[in-house]
């Protein structure tokens, strides 16, 4: 239940579900989504009443130090999904299907989706348009919620020639055709990443499901960011991100305070231990 729209959304204490995504979209209430990869972060984000938590394969580049997402395995995603699901009691948990775990066949895709749902995901996300329609249909037919992902798709970064805007001008109709195909295949929403605002706007006017934007302009039905970008955890951030809090600086400050307290022998203090 949302304070501005009392007739939509989950009741207090109940989880946010896919039907609530559509309710918010229909009511014109913007949807919120952030990534998380562990239980503590998920619990904090969940307590902020973020609608959806994405267990992104960005886990590899943010938490594991990888240079791209293609090295992330299904085991990585299952472990991260289980952790996030343990920490989030309200938000809809969406898990990325990692590179190499769905492209071969619909059967492979269903097996991967099942593994992520067993770990605690309420929905799965996979990258691509018409080329993966058989996989999307098979997952939906297996009773699993699917979120699409179009525009810049990080798993295909090498094929796309690097991180660059997708769906410009002449390429816009093709991207929108992919979006319509995903909708027809049963996807409940689609992420548009690094897509011109004009293309997103055109897609919004043709789709009956919400677009969740990341670097896709203000007309998307919702927005998603990687939590470390949103929270200022590193010196660099993507141009499409905005820093909403200097959590990285605060963490560094706390670590420095701890170091100084240990070196100066002010920690542990008497209240931190038992003499006998």
TrEMBL record:
**A family per Pfam:** Pantoate_transf
What InterPro entries does the record point to?
Pantoate_hydroxy_MeTrfase, Pyrv/PenolPyrv_kinase-like_dom, Pyrv_kinase-like_dom_sf
- Mind listing the UniProt keywords for this protein, alphabetically? Cytoplasm, Magnesium, Metal-binding, Methyltransferase, Pantothenate biosynthesis, Transferase
UniProt-listed Enzyme Commission number(s): 2.1.2.11
Give the main location.
cytoplasm
Q: In which pathway does it act?
A: Cofactor biosynthesis; (R)-pantothenate biosynthesis; (R)-pantoate from 3-methyl-2-oxobutanoate: step 1/2
Q: Which reactions are catalysed by this chain?
A: (6R)-5,10-methylene-5,6,7,8-tetrahydrofolate + 3-methyl-2-oxobutanoate + H2O = 2-dehydropantoate + (6S)-5,6,7,8-tetrahydrofolate
Kindly indicate whether the keyword Transferase belongs to this entry: yes
Q: Give the EC class as a word.
A: transferase
Which cofactors are reported in the record for this sequence?
Mg(2+)
Annotated Mg(2+) binding sites: 57, 96, 127
Protein residues bound to 3-methyl-2-oxobutanoate: 57-58, 96, 125
Give this protein's Gene Ontology molecular function annotations. Answer: 3-methyl-2-oxobutanoate hydroxymethyltransferase activity; magnesium ion binding; methyltransferase activity
- The active-site annotation reads 193
One Gene Ontology BP term is:
pantothenate biosynthetic process
- Intracellular or extracellular location(s): Cytoplasm
Can you supply one Gene Ontology CC term for this chain's record? Answer: cytoplasm
Q: How is the cofactor bound?
A: Binds 1 Mg(2+) ion per subunit.
Q: Which family does it belong to?
A: Belongs to the PanB family.
Job description of the protein:
Catalyzes the reversible reaction in which hydroxymethyl group from 5,10-methylenetetrahydrofolate is transferred onto alpha-ketoisovalerate to form ketopantoate.
Q: How would you summarize the oligomeric state and partners of this protein?
A: Homodecamer; pentamer of dimers.
- The name on file for this protein is 3-methyl-2-oxobutanoate hydroxymethyltransferase
């Amino acid at each position: 239940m949302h304070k501005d729209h009392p007739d939509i959304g989950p009741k207090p204490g109940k989880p946010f579900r896919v039907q609530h995504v559509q309710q918010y979209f229909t009511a014109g209430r913007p949807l919120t989504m952030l990534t998380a990869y562990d239980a503590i972060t998920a619990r904090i984000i969940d307590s902020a009443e973020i609608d959806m938590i994405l267990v992104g394969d960005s886990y590899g580049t943010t938490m594991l130090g990888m240079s791209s997402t293609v090295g992330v395995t299904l085991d990585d995603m299952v472990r991260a999904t289980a952790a996030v699901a343990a920490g989030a009691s309200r938000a809809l948990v969406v898990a990325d299907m990692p590179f190499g775990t769905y492209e071969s066949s619909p059967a492979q895709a269903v097996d991967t989706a099942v593994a992520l749902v067993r770990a605690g995901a309420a929905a799965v996300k996979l990258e691509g348009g018409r080329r993966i329609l058989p996989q999307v249909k098979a997952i939906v037919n297996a009773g699993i919620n699917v979120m699409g992902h179009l525009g810049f798709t990080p798993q295909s970064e090498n094929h796309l020639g690097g991180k660059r805007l997708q769906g410009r001008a002449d390429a816009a109709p093709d991207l929108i055709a992919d979006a319509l195909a995903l909708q027809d295949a049963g996807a409940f929403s689609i992420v548009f990443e690094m897509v011109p605002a004009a293309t997103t706007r055109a897609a919004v006017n043709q789709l009956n499901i919400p677009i969740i934007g990341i670097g896709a302009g203000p007309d998307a039905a919702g927005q998603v960011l990687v939590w470390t970008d949103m929270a200022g955890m590193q010196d660099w951030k993507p141009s499409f991100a905005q820093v909403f809090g200097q959590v990285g600086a605060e963490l560094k400050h706390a670590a420095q305070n701890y170091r100084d307290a240990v070196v100066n022998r002010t920690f542990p203090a008497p209240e931190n231990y038992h003499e006998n």
